[in-house]
Amino acid sequence: MDSERLKLVLVCGLVILLIALIIWTASVVKSRMSTNRTVVIENNRIEGAIAYDEAHATSDKYWYNKYDMDSEDEIDRLKAKHYFNDIKECIDDLIIEMYDCGFVHTEELYTIAYGKDALTPDAPIFKVYGEDEDEDLELPPLSNEAKEQILSKWEEYVDGLFEEVVIETSQNEISLIKDSLKKYGHKDLAVLLKCPE
Prior knowledge:
This protein is mainly alpha-helical. The protein has helices at 2-56, 74-80, 87-100, 106-114, 144-164, 171-183, 189-192, and strands at residues 62-65, 82-83, 165-168. It is 62% helix and 5% strand.
């Protein structure tokens, strides 16, 4: 009887030891995999940032939004720089940035053009655009005074953009970019109401 009890205790002890070893092995493997995964992800981010920087290093001209550079992460700051080779590329990107960052208030331009009542649903010019490109309605003509006010407002939008954006290029090119952005405000209201993406 003692021999059977001893065998039972020995078997139970071995089973408990085996379960403990399995649990310990699983926890060690899990922690190592977690550590390795973190290292691999960080290495991939660094390699990606280096490759991105090398791909754009052909140009020494770039612009960035100051808000995007607030990040503590060096990689995020590298990605925030928008490199450009020609000024037109920079101008196009900055126009899109004006819309994306909320510098352009299309409803404000619309009310300058047609009055505050133009945004009410019963106004005859409330529906500017249809669901389909073919359904676009033509906007009524603007008065010269409204055109001047829209241009003035657009120039305020450009000035607001230049307070938030840094452009790394020559001063002559910066002036040319700013002038070109302001000239964009001369376009038809239908163009100004849509982001050019």
